[in-house]
Specification:
The chain is an all-alpha fold and about 325 residues long. The chain is built from 17 helices and no strands. Helix 2 crosses helix 15 and helix 8 packs across helix 10. Bound molecules: zinc ion.
Length: about 325
Amino acid sequence: MSEWTPDVARLQALADEEWLAVQRHYCGRLMAYVARRVADREAREDVLQETFLGALRGIAGFDPSFTFEQYLFGICKNRTIDHLRRARARTLSAGSDEDAPPPLDSLARETDTPSRIVGRRELAQSGAQLLADVLRQWVQETWQEQEFTRLAVIEALFSGGWRNRDTWKRFELRDETSVAGIKFRALKRLRELAAERDPEGALSRMLAEALDSGEGDVHFDVGELWKRARVSCPARHWIARLVAGTLPEGPREFVRFHLDELHCEWCQANRDDLEQSCSRCSSRCRPRPCATCTRAAARRPGVRRQHRSNGRRSRCGGPPA
Ligand SMILES: [Zn+2]
């Protein structure tokens, strides 16, 4: 992880400082999410307040299988839906046409429970968790192998529901059989990963059926789970480097695809936030240094500049999340 995350135990103990730090760190990206969907400025502030209140109320039941950002974004989404329902307002914000926010119906549908996402009763809960884990592990492996085209192809098929024909054209592959080959190898690896985590084999067999069923209902549900569990979302520092123009070509192509063609709403909110923070001050501040570097810079001038110029890790490197 490259960025600050709160100490959940301290949040659960209602430590003021930790909650203030949460507001400081997450306010920008949450506001960016709300701003794409709620036109009225005051209402945005209300939604944000309600989000932090909801986070406070729900923290005792925090589920550690999600990240804290996912927890906050989930609440923020629900408060946004509540607001849109109450106001029966148009969901358009000031964004451009291509970034038009999804209608209320699709927002609401995405809040389905895990059991509905996976769709088949016997795969609910533990099956969904296992599938999310193996998908995430596959993404990490593929990222570490620098196979960004393979990663984007599988994301297009699983999460975007693209057809083979559209996919090979978009990625300039030889033909449809290239896409089929990538998918075949990915499914094989996913089954191996599932078997490692589930030696008894009961869940693995069901997952294998789900993954093998191709274009049917379950295929679609894998896509829902992919999005909901955010298995391929890059950590925020990757998006910061994209904004700063310092991201190498491979990850840059994937992160752009994820943001601009699959329209990941959470990563878009992070990008909006990072772009806005940069436009508020001089361009030299991009990307915002991680917390470690900010603290180091406070002690020793010059460290921050060095961090910017070489773009390399302090804690700002490595595979996604
Ligand atoms: Zn994302």
